Input
Amino acid sequence: MSPYAADQRIEVVVGDLTTLRTEALVNAANESLLGGSGVDGAIHRAAGPRLLAHNRTLGGCSTGSAKLTPAFDLEAQGVKALIHTVGPIWGDDPLADGTEPLGYRLEDNQLGRCYASVLELAAAHGLVSVAFPAISTGVYGFPKDRAATIAIGHVRAFLLRSALPERVVFCCFTEEDAAIYRARLKPRDILRQIGHPDSE
Ligand code: ADP
Output
């Protein structure tokens, strides 16, 4: 399959992740899985207190890994599962001096593992659509451009070898953030302009 074909299954939207109706919503959680600020807080508020009670039984989650839970109150809007993943905190690599090219920092690899771990879980549970926030780019301070390159690279590579999920949504909080993702994707209208067969 051409990499362009994978991009046809990726969508960029602007808004609040918790309002989406994809089968899975991804939470940018912390290692405790007991809630926090940003997306994490919004997901816990929208899913209701049963999520916290459930997550207390999970024993946390290590950075780069993912755990799936029911969507609780979010089921009412069609969400079947939440997939919690823990992104890296930018600056946590004690060996980094700031000059590492993309892919050479510990945090780059941990962030890539987040996307891969989530997609593996989604596919294993037969989930058709998954929406991601921009993991680690809020309070965890990961540079947004670098994070988007990693996110798209990992999602694209996964979609090329897996029929599930059929659709991946990058949910950005601002238009500015969405532009970072759109600039890296090859949407159908661009393929049409260049006459690429995957545009059909
Ligand atoms: P992290 O701790 O992994 O950095 P944050 O929740 O602080 O996670 O931020 C991750 C990204 O999600 C940021 O780009 C932030 O602007 C965005 N964000 C925060 N709340 C929401 C929301 N409700 N829906 C979508 N994106 C959100």
User: Anything to note?
Assistant: The chain has seven helices and six strands.
